[in-house]
Amino acid sequence: MPETLEPPGLSALERLKYQGDPLADAVIAELVADERTSAVNEVLAQFRDNDQPIPENLPESVRRYLIETDTPPDWVDLDRVARAYEFFVDDGVHVASVLSFGAMVNCYAQPRPSRVLSLTHRLNQPHRRLSETSQFVLNLMGPDPFGSGGGFVPTIQKTRLIHAAVRYFITRSGDWDVEADGVPLCQQDMLGALLIFSVQVIDGMRRMGITVTDREAEDYYYVWRVTGTMLGIPAEAMPETLREAQELNAGLVEASYGPSAEGIELTRNLLRLYENMVPGKAFDGVVAAMVRQVVTEDVADWLEVPRSRGWGRAVGAGVRAMRLLERSEDRSRMATAVLDKAGDLLLGGSVRTLTDGQSTTLTIPADLREKWLAAGVCPVTGRRDRAAASP
């Protein structure tokens, strides 16, 4: 990354706007200079598991980077990680629903990151971004994502390199003023995304009527905090508790929300993608109504999410019914089946046909797949176990 002139008198949080990821940025700069990006991509595409040896046929700078970023922070509590996994086993389809209807849209409510997405044509494709985000979360929520048998560490390492490549090319495109706008995909943006995918997903689930205990919420945020550290976000920038994270979310992320042409266009493309998942025209409008249920009214208006009085009332009634079903979930398998249906449709759709019949490379970790199959809620199969769905 080129040297940036950081304005004087900034707070620690404001300085994050001018910080990239020096470790990954240096690797990308060297690869571009040596014209070796394509060859490295081919090798890294086969690097998928935590236990897999680091490939030998990589430039020394890439090997050093992979070695240096190979382990989680020494303060990680594996018991809390395991509890977050159990939460995801029970409520993974709900997490996927809220992430898709709410978190993705809230990302587009931030004008600066939305501009980055629009300038990066690879990311300005809703089906690809949804599948990549879903895969990231699925890998994160495996039984031991940071340890032996997991596959999340290479995902994090490659994600950091992708972000570094975006920073490299946008800052040299002539379309971005670093001194005025900060670094594209800066650490402040990364922190904001982490809060959206953790704090706001929990808030969205509760808004939809899904019961999330305080302990489950704390553990879910904790796993994201570990992930943030491995993504290169300064540990001191991430709050230790969920309450502190909620306060930062309100002061940093939600305070940055506003309308932008890029955010409106990204949201329009995303809604069109979701609507294509729902067969026929009879249900047009239900997707927008779901989005309006999960995000705030201001965000929905800024991003021009369509209104539908009829579907709005229907979704509101459905949420009220969902709250009743949630209270009976432990006592009724039928209630569980009905409650999981929305997440099953969405995650199942993103696995099978995201857009124009294109299949994706989205894969569910084997352990999660087995547990979801046993519960009759595994969306990748497109089927339900009859016994699990019976009262």
From TrEMBL:
<dbReference type="InterPro" id="IPR018713">
    <property type="entry name" value="MPAB/Lcp_cat_dom"/>
</dbReference>
<dbReference type="Pfam" id="PF09995">
    <property type="entry name" value="MPAB_Lcp_cat"/>
</dbReference>
<protein>
    <recommendedName>
        <fullName>ER-bound oxygenase mpaB/mpaB'/Rubber oxygenase catalytic domain-containing protein</fullName>
    </recommendedName>
</protein>
<dbReference type="GO" id="GO:0016491">
    <property type="term" value="F:oxidoreductase activity"/>
</dbReference>
<dbReference type="InterPro" id="IPR037473">
    <property type="entry name" value="Lcp-like"/>
</dbReference>
<feature type="domain" description="ER-bound oxygenase mpaB/mpaB'/Rubber oxygenase catalytic">
    <location>
        <begin position="124"/>
        <end position="323"/>
    </location>
</feature>
